[in-house]
Automatic annotation (TrEMBL):
GO molecular function, one term: kinase activity
InterPro entries in the cross-refs: CheY-like_superfamily
Protein name (Swiss-Prot/TrEMBL): Hisitidine kinase
Record's keyword terms, sorted: Kinase, Transferase
Keyword Kinase: yes
Annotated Gene3D superfamilies: 1.20.140.160, 3.40.50.2300
SUPFAM superfamilies given in the database record: CheY-like
Length: 198
């Protein structure tokens, strides 16, 4: 399991028992838990510093979409976590994972921090959108986990995208955009990540 030390995770959940379970789970991995927030107003106090978020869609009858919009604007990865099946997620937010409250903490972790996919066991690649905009939040968080410094992480993402443009013609067929960009990013971090810290 990845080391989440120092990663600020916003938990927006109005069920205090469930919110406490999530807070303990991510806190035990070293994450800094913001909240848990049970209202839109409380959640909005943390959106500027959050680096990932778990969002209950229905907060006592109010929708969490304004918080999701703000997180998306900042490029912060988030997952919806809801017990309601009849709520329609706006088209602009459908790139985010939508998990049922019957999902366990491991599923939430995997949705926020997708495991590296490989050709092990001949498993086919996960069908992900090739829209780079929707991948950016996950790419930024992966960079943050690699380098641990916000400024250096953003520089790493910039270098990754620059190199991707240069290497687009050599991209292997069958590799998803997300896996391809993550591979480029790991190579840059491995060969010169420390230089990005200065």
């Amino acid at each position: 399991m990845r080391d989440l030390r120092g990663v600020r995770i916003l938990i927006v959940e109005d069920d205090w028992v469930l919110a406490g379970d999530l807070a303990r789970y991510f806190g035990n991995m070293g994450a800094v838990v913001l909240g848990p927030a049970a209202t839109i107003e409380h959640a909005s106090m943390h959106t500027e510093v959050a680096e990932a978020a778990i969002l209950d869609i229905n907060l006592n009858g109010r929708r969490v979409f304004p918080i999701a919009d703000e997180l998306m604007r900042r490029g912060v990865p988030f997952v919806f976590f809801s017990g309601d099946e009849d709520i329609v997620i706006p088209e602009r937010l459908r790139h985010a994972s939508n998990l049922r409250k019957s999902s366990d903490s491991y599923a939430i972790f995997d949705a926020l921090f997708p495991p590296e996919r490989s050709a092990l066991a001949g498993r086919p690649p996960v069908n992900l959108s090739d829209n780079v905009f929707s991948i950016l939040p996950k790419l930024r968080l992966a960079a943050r986990l690699l380098l641990g410094d916000v400024g250096a992480s953003d520089r790493l993402v910039e270098r990754t995208l620059e190199r991707a443009i240069d290497e687009i013609d050599t991209r292997r067929a069958g590799v998803s955009t997300e896996d391809w960009l993550n591979g480029i990013m790991r190579n840059i971090a491995g060969s010169g990540g420390t230089r990005l810290l200065h």
